[in-house]
Write a structure and sequence with these properties.
Length: 130
């Protein structure tokens, strides 16, 4: 039923565009020429096209609301997992613990012999590459 209403909505949209383009504008538009008598006189065509535009615009808005309500109420009980990603191996790896106390490495150089290097702060920041 949803597909049927969607097709009707597309037809209404195409008809609305056609009726709007047929109307006379200040520049002449794509209006129909022809006999000045009857329904298709300048005044009769303008009244008909104006009325048709109003009716089609109302139908377009009502169908839009109806389709939105139907789409919101349409619940599927099945989840499509065909495009599911597997987690990356690096994302699942557990970070190693930092050495504590006396196990900290010493800073290099003769002037720093015997002085322990400060432990890096584990604030979650990633160092930038140079």
């Amino acid at each position: 039923m949803f597909a049927f209403l969607l097709v009707i909505h597309a037809i209404i949209a195409a008809a609305l565009v056609t009726v709007i383009l047929m109307q006379r504008s200040e520049g002449g538009g794509l209006g129909m020429g022809g006999s000045p008598a009857g329904l298709m006189s300048a005044r009769g065509a303008a009244d008909f096209l104006t009325r048709a535009t109003g009716v089609l615009a109302t139908m377009f808005v009502l169908f839009s609301i109806l389709l939105a309500v139907l789409a919101a109420n349409h619940r599927t009980s099945e989840i499509d997992t065909s495009l599911a990603r597997t987690p990356a191996a690096a994302a699942t790896a557990v970070p190693t613990a930092q050495p504590k106390g006396d196990a900290a490495p010493f800073a290099g150089g003769a002037e720093n012999a015997g002085v322990a290097a400060p432990a890096p702060a584990d604030n979650g920041a990633v160092p930038l590459a140079n």
